[in-house]
Design goal:
Strand content: 25-35%
Shape: elongated
Radius of gyration: 43 Å
Number of domains: 3
Number of helices: 5
Number of strands: 24
Largest sheet: 10 strands, antiparallel
Distance between the termini: 66 Å
Length: 415
């Protein structure tokens, strides 16, 4: 029992020294939470809407035989680019050339007979001035001359038909473009009922067709009608590999009807499709756009517009819609219901509910409670996103991070 009482003073001394140390190690609590804010400011952005489209050739021709005959020659390389007027197929010509020669001979024969009828008519008209002449003879000679003249006109028309058919034995390219493989080889008999021999698909320029919902079409009309219509927008393409196409296009057509099954309107743009530098026409991959290719269409405004913008990260949503936290003059966070316009993953365009110059919380939102005080400071600038743009039905470009610079000073001035 004496040993137990002897150790008790030592334990008391140790406990008294330990408790102050533990108390000093506990951090102090209290004080408003720190948040990052930006100032809602007007900025210049380029409006952009994104759709899925398909490349379509401007011209497409199916080559067919116009006359019946053996196919003697194929004068093109399959898959190559051809020019308008190039000889592509040649059918046998001797039968058609013989018809041309026969019609020419017929015309010569009729010419001779017509000349003789003219002389007969002249003699009959001279004799009519003498007692030996008769009017009936003149009338008969005149009828014969006019009959031969009509026969010559018919023979000349028949000759033109024969020459046209002879020309049809040479099948030439009606447009510039790239030709497909041949469906019929040399030695076969071809006719108008044979079907397509090959197709020619134009290469430059190309169409891009993309469907737009009726509601989006109305938004586009309201947005650009007063700013120049078709000339107020430019078309950019994102290729299937994610790269941006290097040529800009223009909108040239809007369908006058709405598709009943999809409630969409088809828009069409014209895109240049030049050869790659150093490549020859017809080489594989010599042009970047191909007929039937799927692309992403970005419809951008030519002139930027001024909008009230905030970082997209500052926007929260619930069942009632979108809202943000703003810092008032007493450094308290208040809920502000807003309406968003065309926005991107980084920038929110506010159409109503927020005033220019207000401080919006964009960082530390999880620590904010409505009506409670906060310690506002400047938010970190967002990282730059190469290329900008957004996904889905609409997007826009613009920098909102710069609006965070005066946040700390403004917040401090209101304290």
């Amino acid at each position: 029992m004496a040993r137990r009482w002897g150790t008790l003073p030592l334990l008391l001394v140790f406990a008294v020294g330990f408790f102050p140390i533990c108390a000093e190690a506990q951090p102090a609590t209290g004080g408003p939470p720190a948040v990052g804010v930006v100032r809602a400011e007007r900025q210049q952005i380029t409006q952009s809407d994104e759709f899925i489209g398909r490349i379509q050739a401007v011209g497409r021709v199916a080559l067919v035989a116009r006359v019946t005959g053996f196919l003697e020659k194929r004068q093109f390389v399959e898959g190559a680019e051809v020019k308008k007027g190039d000889l592509l197929y040649q059918q046998e010509q001797p039968p058609f050339q013989a018809l041309v020669d026969a019609d020419k001979a017929t015309i010569q024969q009729l010419d001779a007979q017509h000349r003789n009828a003219e002389l007969t008519l002249e003699r009959a008209q001279l004799l009519l001035k003498t007692p030996a002449g008769q009017q009936s003879t003149v009338d008969a000679a005149l009828a014969s001359e006019r009959a031969f003249a009509a026969q010559i006109a018919g023979a000349q028309a028949q000759l033109r038909t024969a020459e046209i058919n002879l020309g049809y034995t040479e099948i030439r390219a009606p447009i510039d473009g790239r030709i497909t493989s041949t469906a019929v080889t040399e030695g076969n008999v071809v006719s108008p009922t044979t079907g397509t021999l090959a197709n020619i698909i134009s290469q430059d320029p190309m169409y891009v067709l993309f469907p737009v919902s009726a509601r989006a079409a109305l938004d586009l009309r309201n947005r650009y009608a007063q700013r120049g219509g078709f000339s107020a927008v430019v078309i950019k393409l994102r290729l299937p590999n994610g790269e941006m196409y290097g040529q800009d296009g223009k909108l040239d057509y809007v369908s006058p009807t709405v598709a009943e099954n999809t409630d969409t309107i088809t828009l069409r743009g014209v895109m240049p499709n030049p050869l790659f530098p150093g490549m020859k026409a017809g080489q594989p991959g010599s042009r970047e756009l191909s007929d039937g290719e799927f692309v992403t269409v970005l419809l951008e405004g030519v002139q930027p517009i001024t909008v009230l913008a905030i970082p997209r990260a500052a926007v929260l949503s619930d069942q009632e819609g979108d809202y943000v936290y703003v810092v008032d003059a007493q450094n308290k966070a208040q809920v502000r219901r807003i309406q968003l316009g065309q926005s991107t993953p980084t920038t929110g365009v506010v159409t109503s509910g927020l005033n220019e110059g207000e401080l919006v919380v964009s960082e530390g939102l999880q620590r904010v409670r409505p009506g409670e005080a906060v310690s506002a400071g400047p938010a970190s600038p967002p990282p730059a996103i190469p290329g900008g743009g957004g996904q889905g039905g609409g997007s826009g470009t613009g920098a909102a991070g710069a609006a965070a610079k005066p946040a700390s000073n403004a917040a401090g001035a209101k304290q």
